[in-house]
Automatic annotation (TrEMBL):
Organism superkingdom: Eukaryota
Pfam families named in the record: C-JID, NB-ARC, TIR, WHD_ROQ1
Protein name: ADP-ribosyl cyclase/cyclic ADP-ribose hydrolase
InterPro entries linked to this entry: Apaf_helical, C-JID, Disease_R_plants, LRR_dom_sf, NB-ARC, P-loop_NTPase, TIR_dom, Toll_tir_struct_dom_sf
Listed EC numbers: 3.2.2.6
Keyword list, A-Z: Hydrolase, Leucine-rich repeat, NAD, Repeat
GO molecular function: ADP binding; NAD+ nucleosidase activity, cyclic ADP-ribose generating
Domain named TIR: residues: 19-186
Amino acid sequence: MASFVGDEASSSSLMPRPCTYKVFLSFRGKDTRKGFTSHLYAALVNRGITTYIDDKNLPKGDLISHELLKAIEESMFGVIVLSPNYASSTWCLDELQKIVECNNNLGLQIVAVFYHVKPCDVRHQIGAFEEAFKKHELRFGQESDRVRRWRNALKQVASYSNWDSEQFKNEAILVESIAQHIHERLIMKLPSSMKNLVGIDSRLEQVVRHIGLGGNDVRFIGICGMGGIGKTTISRRVYETIRSEFKASCFLANVRETCEKRGIVQIQKQLLDRTNINSDTSFHDEFEGKAIICDSLCHKKVLLVLDDVDDGGLLENLAGEQDWFGPGSRIIITTRDKHVLEVHGAVNRICKVEGLEQNEALELFCLKAFKRPKPEEGYMDLSKEVVEYCDGLPLALVVLGSHLCGQTIDVWRSAIEKIKSFPHDKIFNTLKISYDGLDHSEKNIFLDIACFFKGREKDYATNILRRCGYHAEASISALINKSLLSIINDDKYADMLGMHDLLQDMGKHIVIQESRDDPSRRSRLWSYTDVDLVLAQNKENEATHSIVLYNMYSEIERNWGDLDIRDLSFSNMFKLKLLILDGVKVPILCNIPCTLKVLHWKGCPMETLPFTDGRYELVEIDLSYSKIVQLWDGKKVLKLLQHLNLSFCDKLKQTPDLSGAPNLKTLNLHRCEELNYIHPSLAHHKSLVELNLMNCIEELPTTPGRLGGVSELDLSGCRKLTSLPLSLACFVGLKKLELSRFVELSCVPYSTHGLESLTAYDKSDNPNIVGLLCSLSRLTSLSTLKLYRCFPTSRKEWNLYYNLGHLTSLTDLDLSRNYFLRVPISIHELPRLTRLNLNDCRFLKVLPELPSSLRELQAQRCHSLDASNVNDAISKACCGFAESASQDREDVLQMLIPGKEIPAWFEHQEQDDGVSVSFPHNCPSTEIITLALCFLLDGFTFLQEQPSVVCNGKEFINTSLLKMSPGTSSKQLFIVCLNGFCFSEQLCQDNRFQMLVPSCGYFNNIRVLRSGACWVIKQDSEGFKKRKSKTGKRKATLELEIDMMSHSSPSRNKMLVVAPPLNELEE
């Protein structure tokens, strides 16, 4: 779908202007007057769109130029039909210039139609446009301001996505598409009885776009979002705007509430009555009602809005199937629960409503508080404080704005403090509707997240909730669907739990209402003051089941009162399940409740914990960064314990007796540097899955016992480990192994397991890389191999090559931070390799031959790479991708490589962050074609930034792009190859592809300098490679130079070390 030039200019900031015409047509008469333009004019007029065309609207005797200028100024849209002879007419170019001026100054929107001309010809003014401008320059002079303005106007119009006649099967389809799209855009500009709807335009546009007026299909559109976000307002505005397009229309408000009070049958009767169906047959149950609705409306074009639906059963009884309604019908459903829409098989599209932007929120609040769009003098800071509290929620902005209207500054200050402690009743009650609809488990998890886990990692919270006995994943998914919870996807960190501030306040208020005056009768405690009071009272407590205190940051220590000097006693808390005391510095913990499921106490100051001989229900203990010397003495009954984290306990001398914890799954001893004894009981833990001994022990115990279930073993940092003991053969379930010394893996039990991941780095003076690689020969299940700083730096070993072709399952290979001149592994012989990381290989001169299976290549900060070699590698990789790319799913190849200019074989190149390309005319199908995009980046970043590629301003691929790692400070090429599946829906126009890079000011100023694109058709890829690979001699010369720099040395393993492949030396 073509976008409209001037969308930005037509914002609400522009003053409204009188519009005599909806559309002004600009065209070259001798090219299109009797054909295309007359058909487009007729299509617009048939839709009731007042259209200006010069030979229809001008009264005789008037000055054409004056009337044209006035007509353009009084039009909402300017349609420019760019035909071959358009630029030869000064009259047309003057019209064009005036349209562009009105676009920039008045908000007029432009629709450009490339009628039998190429968009690039218009953009670069070549072909017929070049000839026309040569004549204009001869007539007016090369330095003429008038000619310059014409050129600039053409460039501006052609830089946007528009309509290309060559992309449509016939002109009838093109004409109808343009007329329909203008019709939809005009609908959104019609006046409404609803006033002061700040920020409505963009949201209205999204819904109308999904509605797709003019089609004969029956379409269900869902609008979802949290309570008070504006779903009803948007749907009502849409309804008022388009109802005239339908033979029958009905807006059913508050469906949920009406059904609760009056029943579904009454709503069915209301639907029939409002659609003018006079049913003589009375009915008394929903089944008869469904049949009558279907029979009465199946031949009518209906617009139906069902507002506030919270149950799929309501939909089944009011709008069960598409065939209940006649052709062209549209059914709009608003709900807080996205799942209701997903389970209804007929819903085609779902629009999620987001909160208002900061400037929109301030304007809406001011309209209610001051009856004008800006605050009164002296109220700006207070207004911003309220707006920040409301966090974009329209309901809260309207309620609080009305509440504060006409009040003094002192009243404002008092009211703001009050609402922060106790939410306004109208806001609270509206939001609580969603909470009341949750089941018992969902309510508990909602309150836990509101009180404890908002803004924390999703996995962290999920694990804790699961270990407390909740079905966390299912409940979190339900909360997301009901718009009570969101997941914040941060490229730099893990997924975080997000929740609107007002929802969080509501959750905390629900807990406080359990007992407003006595915290010991509340289910959850998170306030230091409340916990201190409850501990001081030391009375029996059967209400509190969760206490969470975080004090890891010094700036909040002043709020702790006496808690840090009070001994903690929880003996009277009979139902306590969750206890988090991270950073609490109390001298003594008197007891540990037997009911406790999860105990987290990072930074615990105690040397041991007061476990008794009783039976405990603990599932997880996390005492990382603590002063623990001995966790407990003797055997303790912890049959449910599965996770024990003692990492960074730098005083820990020995592991505890774990014989009473037979179900232990993970044991983390990372950086327990004083650890000198591992209790023999560990040897008998058949359930142990993950054992982390990183930077912990000097050597692995010689008798680890029967640890057959361990799948992850971390021995990195064990510097004196020169070989793996034979006892390692007991790790028959090992899947992941990390080492910091190169040792032969001969003792790894190959026959009974398949190691899938190996990470190794060696900072010693003489790393045994050959011994390590030799021992990989039988690890056929290995899928991930990371070898950091592994390969020798001496010149005599630069010419060695290692054949790892037997690793047939290898998909990820990380060779970053090595010092070789060329990659010493036969990469092309790895048939399933998809990711190759060569970052920070600063001396690397040539890229290896890459397998066609590769989908990610990173070579950031490889500053020694030869430019001609890089260009050659890129072209070969793109061709290999074209030959191997999937046809039935999205498939993407990405490469991030140093480079100063885009290779010349990218045929379409433009300055800045985007490039426009049209689908090649000689290609019959998207299944046999790929699109290679190349972006030249410059700048630096201190952050790990992830760019995105958009087509016509919208994201269109699901694959996450490679992240640019911190420290990048030189020019680099970002290549993205897309198979036909990615852009199969983007081919009806001249598409503009852009790379967008997040901007973070001083921390990231990476920008796109230039963009390139090239189509690669599968059957032509062999010829393409031969044409583009003209750098083979240069590469062979580089290889020869490397060989001359090295000195031949006898191989220590002739079966492993091989000569470089010939196809890397010759072309």
